[in-house]
Amino acid sequence: MRTPLSDRLGIEYAVFGFTPFPAVAAAISRAGGLGVLGAVRYGDAEDLAKDLDWMDAHCGGKPYGVDVVMPAKKVEGVTVEQVEAMIPEGHRDFVRAQLAKYGVPALPEGERGGWRITGWMEEVARSHVDVALEHPVKLLASALGSPPPDVVERAHAAGMLVAALAGSARHAQRHAEAGIDVIVAQGHEAGGHTGEIGTMVLVPEIVAAVHPLPVLAAGGIGTGAQVAAGLALGAQGAWLGSIWLTVTESDLASPVLRRKLLAAGSGDTVRSRALTGKPARQLRTEWTDAWESEESPGTLPMPLQGLLVAEALSRIQTYETPELIGTPVGQIVGQMNEERPVAAVMDELTRGFEQAVARLGRIASAEGEQA
């Protein structure tokens, strides 16, 4: 499972594992892939710096990456408090009503939720980039469009490759024009923010649109055979995120949420704007259903929606409200049926890839003999 891109990055397998958990990212890198730590949950850049220091000490000298979120539209001179003041009171009332309906208690006095939403603000994302540049990061990825030109230049000057996610060939071409090195073709099946085009259609479209830039296949990939399919479509690797949520190294604090993920089928996700204001695939819950109901005031644009629901989601997670608790996850959740260590997942990916390639080789040989 080696490609020119994996060789360029010095990794054994062309598996790129996105995760919000440092222990999982480090384990992916140690197992031969490239662990990519998601930075959006870090409101404080010092916390990110501490976790990257930890990864430096626990990746076994293997390379790793960092994923930041930099909104495409820049808003200068605006604080989080000023943005929050733009949220209509009717939307706040709706959130309060949903929490009251399910009896979700308030957070303990002095504790404020919303730790994961400030990362959507550009000033915070830039602080994440500053921290990443101080560490031996090999890949800087951007989840919402191309990073600003100065960020791309700084990353390149530090010897990093820059990746960006794309949901259409048009988006991918814009990334290429912006000097991005690696395009992540993220299909409709993926967890988190996704577009309308399925992975099987999207990957070859983007490969053709940005040739000779390397492309990673993402969305609906959680087995070795699916990795092989991505490479057969022209990708130089696979970008996997959801599959790592239930590994034993993950810091998924809620036993209730872990059980829900392990029990979910591939049809138990929904694309909803309830989390951030942009369509994001996540577990379907009574919370996501509420935002689609007739009583809903409708979701707000990013970053207002994220700021609106941040504390509510913290309360739901803190008290593990079963009807409401969820998380971004892709349709591959239907194959996440047991807890396994990262090494076991990587072993299954590589063995499954080899078996799929061998199976195709036998088919090709048989066809050759018939011809």
UniProtKB/TrEMBL annotation:
Entry keywords, A to Z:
Dioxygenase, Flavoprotein, FMN, Oxidoreductase
Q: Which GO terms describe its molecular function?
A: dioxygenase activity; nitronate monooxygenase activity
Keyword Cell membrane included in the entry's annotation: no
Task: Write down a Pfam family by its short name.
Answer: NMO
**Which CDD domains is this protein grouped with?**
NPD_like
Which SUPFAM superfamilies did the record assign? Inosine monophosphate dehydrogenase (IMPDH)
Q: Which PANTHER family match?
A: 2-NITROPROPANE DIOXYGENASE, MONOOXYGENASE RV1533-RELATED
Name of the protein: NAD(P)H-dependent flavin oxidoreductase YrpB, nitropropane dioxygenase family
Originating organism: Streptacidiphilus jiangxiensis
